[in-house]
Specification:
With 508 residues, this protein is mainly α. The chain contains 20 helices and no strands. Helix 6 (121-158) crosses helix 7 (164-184), helix 7 crosses helix 15 and helix 7 packs antiparallel against helix 17 (377-396).
Length: 508
């Protein structure tokens, strides 16, 4: 007589069968799109959601860019800019989620453009190259920010200022560490992204509580919601407040990163779009709590503006909670920054893989090679190499380095624009929708996203200080223009001969 099966054993078999079904369903969807599955599907909803949370990096993103809004519009611009921009970024997330559900592949924006507009291959080529470079540049920015947080820690704790060479060396170390973690593979990234979600939630509680409890003076609600600050030199109050919106947009970029790991997720056609939307919705709320704590606790905006610390927010912490607790706050943000830096190289390496798969990137065999950890390591270490080279620019000229990095934010928004334009002007571009569908709201949401993206792209290239001189000029337009010229030359010299559109790895 057979031994009766225990309830726990029966439950385990049911879970195993469900996982097999989910993997089979996702892989079949990938096969229908013309691609043979090569990655193990080991990411859960929490892991996929965490990837986008990591890429957005709400604590580190808001902390690193806070001075942009604080000096351009002040509390009023920061508060209302955050909520307005969060709303429109959520609309963009809904737009992307609908496309991602239909096309759950790691090419993300690039694949979507190619799939929806196959008769114009140059559009997909430009989107893929522009977005991949934007991801690498964003990673470099995150690595340098981590180095600047460490520099601020040294200044607050020991009164020692690091040299540019020392800061660049720390950025190189973070670059290499990001490469090592990404080389270990999908499971490691999934665990780290899950940890990041909890770190963000716990870190927000710690930072908000510390600021509200320890600040010697709390600002009034009238100050937080209506006070305007202007350190830009521009006379137009409305324009100055709009410049402060850039802080919110810069912070909230990255929701689409969930699509880059779609081929490594269980039920990607459901989890990836949920990760895209959930990361923005969660970041909106978490960021609002953190922002309000900063605005109620800031002691002297002029002191923050005149700081000698490497990161201006270090001065805000120093004035509000003292040197010891400032170091704790900076450590919380720095750890978040490092994890965010790691995920940008996760995205860029997957995008290099997707581009190589379709003959849109050179050395196809190498960039499609996976190591035993299922990581596209050629793409990972190419990102690291580019990051280390760009970091060298910081040693010679902070202006040149900042121009390169500011171009990343614009490049991301320009990449966002491509699939949105297609959905607005060719609404029938998706013929086989996935489980996540907007229905009658699809076109209005895409149109609103289109207008907002255009507005932000224009805002990003306007001068942020007056009178404009060689030091304060916004060189982002130069950097983005240079990048577009390079991609254009690449297309006519090599791309138009090699890239003809998406290349199926399996036949229907």
């Amino acid at each position: 007589m057979g031994k009766p099966e225990s309830p726990s054993s029966s439950e385990g078999q049911v879970i195993a069968k469900e996982e097999v079904y989910n993997v089979t369903t996702s892989d079949q969807r990938l096969l229908d799109l013309g691609y043979r599955p090569k990655f193990r599907r080991e990411m859960s909803l929490f892991g996929v959601l965490g990837i986008s949370f990591c890429s957005i990096g709400i604590l580190n993103g808001m902390s690193s860019a806070l001075q942009t809004g604080l000096f351009s519009g002040g509390p009023l611009g920061l508060f209302w800019g955050w909520n307005i921009c969060s709303f429109f970024m959520l609309l963009i997330a809904f737009s992307f989620a609908e496309i991602c559900s239909a096309y759950p592949t790691m090419g993300g924006l690039y694949f979507w453009v190619c799939k929806m507009k196959p008769d114009v291959p140059i559009l997909g080529f430009f989107t893929g190259w522009l977005y991949s470079m934007a991801m690498v540049f964003t990673g470099v920015s995150a690595n340098l920010s981590a180095a600047l947080y460490l520099s601020s820690l040294a200044e607050v704790g020991q009164g020692r200022s690091l040299t540019r060479l020392e800061i660049a060396a720390i950025a190189w170390a973070v670059n290499i560490f990001s490469g090592i973690v990404n080389t270990i593979g999908t499971k490691a990234i999934g665990h780290m992204s899950t940890l990041f979600v909890w770190w963000t939630l716990g870190g927000t509680v710690v930072l908000v509580t510390t600021l509200l409890v320890k600040a010697p003076m709390m600002n009034s609600a009238n100050f937080v919601f209506t006070n305007v600050q202007n350190f830009t030199g521009w006379q137009s109050r409305g324009f100055v407040v709009l410049l402060g919106f850039l802080q919110a947009v810069y912070t909230l970029e990255g929701c689409e990163t969930a699509a880059q790991v779609a081929e490594e997720a269980v039920r990607a056609e459901i989890l990836a779009p949920l990760g895209v939307v959930g990361s923005i919705a969660g970041s909106w709320l978490i960021g609002l709590a953190y922002l309000l704590a900063l605005l109620f606790a800031v002691q002297d905006i002029a002191s923050v503006q005149a700081t000698t610390f490497a990161i201006p927010i270090a001065q805000l912490f120093y004035d509000a909670v003292g040197p010891r607790l400032s170091q704790m706050c900076l450590i919380v943000i720095m750890v978040s920054q490092v994890m965010a830096a790691i995920t940008t190289f996760t995205a860029s390496s997957r995008l290099f893989y997707a581009l190589a798969r379709d003959n849109a990137f050179p050395m196809k065999k190498q960039f499609m090679t996976l190591n035993r950890f299922q990581a596209p390591y050629w793409g990972v270490w190419t990102s690291v190499l580019i990051g280390c080279i760009i970091s060298c620019a910081y040693i010679g000229s902070a202006i040149a380095f900042n121009a390169i990095l500011s171009s990343a934010a614009i490049s991301v928004m320009l990449s966002y624009l491509q699939p949105i334009i297609i959905r607005v002007f060719w609404p029938d571009s998706i013929r086989d929708f996935g489980p996540f569908r907007l229905g009658k709201w699809s076109w209005p949401i895409n149109f609103a996203s289109f207008l907002f993206t255009i507005f932000v792209c224009v805002l990003f290239i306007l001068p942020t200080a007056y009178p404009v001189d060689v030091i304060n000029m916004n060189y982002a337009i130069v950097a983005v223009g240079g990048l577009l010229v390079v991609i254009t030359i690449n297309w006519f010299w090599w791309g138009r001969h090699s890239f003809k559109g998406l290349v199926k790895t399996v036949m229907s």
